[in-house]
# Entry
Amino acid sequence: MSDDTRDAEEGKPARGDSRQQAVPDAGAPLADAAFPGFDTASIPPRPPMPANTVNAGGVGGPAIDLLDTADHNAIREQWRAARDELGTHVSYARDQLDQANERIKERTGRDLILAILIGLAFGAALLGSLLFIKILFVPFALAAALLGVWELSRALRSAGRRVDVVPQLIAATLLVLSAYFAEIWLCWIMLFLAVAFVIVWRLMSQMIERDGRTYGDVLADAVVGGFVQIYVPFLAGVALILLKQEGGQWWVLGFIAVAVAADTGAYAAGLAFGRHPMAPKISPKKTWEGFAGAVAASLIAGVLLALFLLDLPWWMGLVFGASILLTATLGDLGESMLKRDIGIKDMSSWLPGHGGLLDRLDSILPSTIPALALYFLFSPWVVL
# Structure
């Protein structure tokens, strides 16, 4: 008996009839066939696509808002225009600064930007050594003294003087270190020994060389050698004598600040108002207007330092500022006269915008003498 006959006898539909009944009506929705009783009318209609959007990914892909894209492009263009405008302003300001720097360089012979940067670097090192641990100023002063001795010795040798660099450096090292680590009376003995050492070395070297140099030239060489020791390492040692006193680091910082203020005031006033030369045969670029600026700057700096750093009355600040101004000006003119006699513009070219280190120490080194003297004179007047 076949399956269809068996199904017919049992009252079940045949398999073919089942397949035909399982196929839903072509006109009825699929959801009605899959989910009987589901009301398709409850589904909200699909919202229309906005007019300013496009289908970026084809059917079913993400839509891109054309208005947002236009806004982003506009913002990008504005940012690019602002950046280009800023670059134009920066380039213009740089050109103006370069032109101003060239005009100042033609008038003063100095590169102002490099001079300021190097001055700030040295000022930071100086402040760091004096404000935190004052003994750190000792290697700073020793290095400055040795470099100054080397510059001065080379400059004198270029002028025909016989200056022995190695013994000069040895004597300078011992003289500077003894100023801080030995008693004051031993410093005077070390000065005598240092001068005697370089003079005897020069005389012995001349006896060995036998190059026919006259007695006048040999004597001048010996005197110049002793002058190098007095001018650079001894004056640097006086600063270290002041440093090792109680509160001496503030006095060292004070007299250096006044000397720098006088130099800066003279430079600024001379550059802006300089018309009348002060000493044309020694330094043609120094003017009386610049000296007036140095006077004002040094006196103001002296009063401020006396009140806020040294705990002194204001009138002592005037005395302090005037004393440092006098020695700083004489030291500057003296070094200018020495360079003119030798026939050079700068002691060296180690410091771009400044010349040599000794060109910056010419006003500071002589100022150590009045600074030390005023320390011992004004110490009893310290405001408690």
